[in-house]
Amino acid sequence: MNNHQCNWPLGKVLGGSSVLNAMYYIRGNRRDYDSWAALGNAGWDYKSLLPYFKKSEDARAEELVDSPYHQEGGYLTIERFRYKSPIDDYIIHSGEELGYKVHDVNGENQTGFTYAYGTLRDGLRCSTAKAFLRPVSKRKNLHISLKSFVEKILVEEDGTSKIAYGVQFRKGRRRVIEAKREIILSAGAIQSPKLLMLSGIGPKDHLEEMNIPVVHHAPGVGQNLQDHVGMAGITYIVDPPHKMNRTERNRFTKNLSRIGNLESIQELIQNNSGPLYSHMISGGMAFIKTKYADKMIDYPDVQLFFSGASDYGLSIANAHEINSKITTSMYKNITKNVQAFGILPCILRPRSRGFIKLKSSNPKEAPTIVPNYFEDPHDLQVLVESMRFLRKMVRTRLMQNLNARLNPNTISKCSQFDILSDEYWACYARYFTSTINHPVSTCKMGPINDSHAVVDDRLRVHGVANLRVIDASIMPHIISGNTNAPTIMIAEKGADMIKQDWL
Ligand SMILES: Cc1cc2nc3c(=O)[nH]c(=O)nc-3n(C[C@H](O)[C@H](O)[C@H](O)COP(=O)(O)OP(=O)(O)OC[C@H]3O[C@@H](n4cnc5c(N)ncnc54)[C@H](O)[C@@H]3O)c2cc1C
Q1: Could you tell me if the CB of 479 is within 6 A of ligand 1?
Q2: With 218 labelled, which of 96, 292, 348, 391 sits at a CA distance of 20 to 30 A?
Q3: Burial of 267 by CB count in 10 Å (0-12 exposed, 13-18 middle, 19+ buried)?
Q4: What does the pLDDT look like over 366-404, one tens digit per residue?
Q5: What total number of domains does the chain contain?
Q6: Is there a catalytic annotation at residue 438?
Q7: pLDDT tens-digit profile of 168-223?
Q8: Rounded distance, CA 20 to CA 7, Å?
Q9: 44 in a structural domain
Q10: What cofactors does this protein use (predicted)?
Q11: Would the CB of 235 count as within 6 Å of ligand 1?
Q12: Cα–Cα distance, 255 to 217 (Å, whole number)
């Protein structure tokens, strides 16, 4: 990667990363939440959480409306992407030949293939700001201070007790606001631990090293960082069906570099249709099991993102700032007349753990983020194994009708290995590593006897009164899917607990 650094974008905006995320609406696997509960977090099992997933939801896709797993009328609208590339149908239905169902992966069973569902309204992004804040913006008891940068949480000591009472932030000048009841920290998995540490709540040695007075020794703050990681850019070349005319063949896959052309913009404005209503990268996905997953239960270990875009490889390389020397030669054969699609496998339950640390006591300075991808060799093994599944997928009848074939151009750094070997794909994964942008668990929830637990099962910070954390950082461990819907679920449950405690 350029500068040997991964690119980790975050939404520094009202609505947070839901304003710039990929919009997939995925809840994870019921076993993830049963595991959270088994770790000592009462009320966090799947059965207890399903009502909170449903509470926010306004399911607008016809096929979801009557499902016991979905609901209409919530603040957050869920739709299918309005436009799909014709190739998406082939990719998604190829799974059926391998014994996988095309079904609702947020429903009874997760294992299977699906078209992409998104946090969308009338085909356009529905961020959490649009869904939850806009409709209540006129409430007299809601005040939002925009362009305000929080520097720390203020905590007073009363004997041996520590009590959070205010927030210091900058809006032009430095200001302090005091809380009548409690403070809710929702700055996300990177910034919440950073703010706790800046406030003196974190690992004692590290705070001392940063010259920050220790308010409360909390060794788990910033630890336990987990993220989904995948290998990006895998591309298959296809020949569109012969029966198609030239225009249909040209539209069989999409081309991201041309998606904003005049024709698509006209379709968008005049007919509310066209490729600008597609998911820019992936129109569908699958949850599959490699040989490392338990065959007997519905607990897939790999998520596949399918891209019906010919130039997905180059686009994703740019997005992740992969050094162009490594990737340019890979895609030089994918010219504008070539039709291709991509698959990005990612591991659902990585075992590697990273951490976040401060670089200094200056709130403006970004923290050090160390994801430690592939520190545990299991994570790489699962990804390599997922390639066997991809090979089976392209050998299905549907894919063979398109003469689907792996892009023969190899990644330059791994060209010493045979493209069909595990060594090649292990090397590939190390060079074309892709975060799925799901950092979690840096202020994990857990009982007091877990020394690394930062909040209890009512999301209250252990050891500091009147302070809760409610965001992706509290997940005890990562869940098997994208993290936005689970974070919204956490917020719904957190909101209920606040009401229970104060009303
Ligand atoms: C590029 C990208 C793609 C993704 N794609 C998907 C997807 O398709 N589906 C999915 O389910 N998930 C996706 N995710 C993940 C998902 O968006 C996050 O899990 C989710 O947004 C986490 O919510 P959060 O509230 O914990 O943190 P955030 O969304 O990061 O929100 C934190 C908020 O705190 C504010 N904040 C932070 N520090 C301060 C401070 N010091 N002062 C004031 N305000 C502060 C930020 O401005 C922001 O508004 C993606 C994420 C990214 C970045």
Answers
A1: no
A2: 348
A3: middle
A4: 999 999 999 999 999 999 999 999 999 999 999 999 999
A5: 2
A6: yes
A7: 999 999 999 999 999 999 999 999 999 999 999 999 999 999 999 999 999 999 99
A8: 14
A9: no
A10: FAD
A11: no
A12: 52
